[in-house]
Amino acid sequence: MSEPPPTTSPIQLGTEGRYEGRRFTVVGRIVYGYERGGWSEWHLVFYDGSSGWLSDAMLEYSVSFLVEDAGPIPYEAQITRGLRLRLFGDTYEVTDTTPARYLGTEGELPWEYHDRGDMTFADLKSAGGRVVTLDQSEDPPLVFAGEYVDFDELSLENLREDAGEVLHHEQVRTLNCPRCGSSVEVRQAGMSVNVVCASCASVLDATSPGAKVLQSFEKRAHLEPLIPLGSKGRLKGAEYECLGYQLRTMHWPGERYSWNEYLLYNPEHGFRYLTEEDGHWNDAVTVKSPPDEGSRYTAGHRKVEFRGETYKHFEGARTTTDYVLGEWPWEVRVGDEVHTDDYVHPPRSLSREVSDDETVWSVAEYMDGSSIWQAFRLEGKPPRPRGVYSNQPSPYGPAAKRLGATAALVLPLFIVLWIVRSATASTPVLAEAHQYAPPQDSAVVVIGPFQAEGRTSNLAVEARTDVSNNWIYFDYALVNTETGTLRETGREVSYYFGREGGESWREGSQRGTVVIPRVPSGEYMLRVAPEGPTPTQYTIRVVRDRPSHLLWGLTLVILLLPPAFALLRHASFHSRRWAESDYASDD
Fold first, then answer.
1. 152 has pLDDT over 60
2. Strand order, beta sheet including 511-519
3. Half-sphere exposure at residue 412, Cβ-oriented, CA atoms within 13 angstroms
4. What pLDDT digit, counting tens, does each position of 357-379 carry?
5. Neighbours of 323 (CB within 10 A)
6. CATH number of 428-546, picked from 2.60.120.510, 3.30.540.10, 3.40.50.2000, 3.40.50.2300
7. Which residue from 157, 334, 338, 389 could staple onto 353, CB 3.0 to 4.6 Å apart?
8. Helix axes of 549-578 and 397-424: crossing angle, nearest 10 degrees
9. What is the C-alpha to C-alpha distance for residues 486 and 500, in angstroms, rounded to an integer?
C-alpha cells in the first residue's frame, strides 16, 4: 500500500460528521491524480455499519454510495461527454470523463487497492443536484450514486488543526525557477499543481521537487493584475486569498474580446473567480448541478433553466488562455482552449466551458467595482465601466418597475374618475329651438333668463342645426342680469358632403359647441345672433359644468410621461446590451 501525497484538505482520518441525520467517521482515503490535478475519496463508516464515500475534489464535496444493481450501463467507449442516461428515475448527463491514476491510500478501505493503476472515471450530473460516478476500473463498471453537499452541511468535527476561519500559511514554500533562477513562492503547497514564475512567466510544476518547467516563453509582455496576488478580501462573509490570474479571450471571425480572471481561495468554501472586462466585474463560482437545457435546440434564442430562472443565450465562441500568473490547483497553460457559451439573466449569467473531456458550468453575479476595491482594500479607484455588459442590471430597471407599478394603480383610478366625472357632470340648463331666415338683422334671439347654479364652472353652448352643404355662424353674448357682465364668443357650424371619383366624402358637422370657462353662479341671459346664406333650423342647448376631455386627456399624458420615459430608457439599455451579442440583429 503506497503512501498518499500530502493534502491541504481540512478533512483527516478520524473526522466525524453527519449526513442526512446519520453520524459517520472518516476511516480511510484513496487519492487519484489526473492530467490537471487530483482529488481524494474519503471512506465513511456510518454508525449503523454501512459505508459511503466523501469526494473531496478541490474543495467541492459530494457524498455517494455504491449501487450494487444499477441496471444496464453503456460500455466505456460509449460513455462520452454530453451523453444523457436515464438512471434511478432521473436524467443524467455525462459532464466529464477523466483518465486518472491511482496515487495511494491510507486508513481502512472496503477492498484492496494495491494492484490498481490507470483507470477512467465518468461523472454524470442531474439538474436536481444528484451525481453518479462510473468507476470503469472493473467490468461492469462500479456505480456510485449520491449528491453534492456544502462543507457546512456535514457538521464536521475533529478537522485538521490548521483548518479554520482564517487563511493559514503553514503550507507556504519557496521554489527556485529552473529557467531564470528567481524565487517562486507557493502559498498553497500540497494543493497547487502549477505555479508561474513572476519574473520570466514560465509555468512550473509545483508538485515536483525541482519545479519542472512545463511552459516557457522567449519574450513575454508583463501584465500587472488589478488585484495583486496574495491579496486577501472578504466576499460572501468569508476571507479569500487571490492565488492566480489569467487573461482570457473569446474569438470570432475578425474580432476578439479579452477579460481578466482572478482565482480566489478559501480553505473551507473553496474557489471562486472575479472577472473584469472593460471595468465590469463579476463574482463567479462553478455549479455542481447543470441547468436544464431542454429547450437548447429551439429556434431563436437558446434558453436554459437554472434555480427557477430562465437564462437566454448571449454569445458563444472559442476561448483561449493568453496569460497566466500565480498558482493553480489544476494544470493551466497559455494556449488552453475551450468553447464557451454565455447565457444571461441580469444581474446573473451562466457560462458553459466545453473541452475535449469536460463540461464545466459556472454562475456569475454582476458586482460594482468599488465593492471589490473595498473588500480587498485596494488603493485608488476601480476602472470606470465602459459600455453595457452582458449581465449588467439596467440602472433604469428599478425606476421603470416602480413607476410602472405606480401607474398600474393610479391609471385605473384616474380612468374611473374620468368616467364618473363624465357621467355625473354636464347638468342641462335649457334647450330652445329656433329658425334662422335671412336677413340677419331680424334673426337675433334672446334666451333666458336662466340660472347657472353651483360652484364656478364652465357653461357649454351647443348649436344643433340642419345645415347641409352650407354653413351658419352663431355670435353669442352671455349677460349676467345682476352685474351686467358681458362675455362674447362665437362658433361656425358647417357641413358638406358629396361624391367624387366613385367615392363618398363628407366634411364638418351639423353641430358646434363653444365652452365659456369660469362662469360664476347667478342669473344669465344669452343673446344668439346667427348669420348664414340660407334658412336654417337650429336648437340651442346650454349645459352647466361640462367636463373638459382635452384637459383630462392632457393630464393622462402627463401621468404617463414618467413611466414611459423610464421604460424607454430601460428598453434602450436592454437594446445596447444585446447589440453586443450573437443576436444583435434580433433585438
1. yes
2. 427-436, 536-544, 457-465, 511-519
3. 5
4. 788 999 999 999 999 999 999 99
5. 20
6. 2.60.120.510
7. 338
8. 160
9. 46
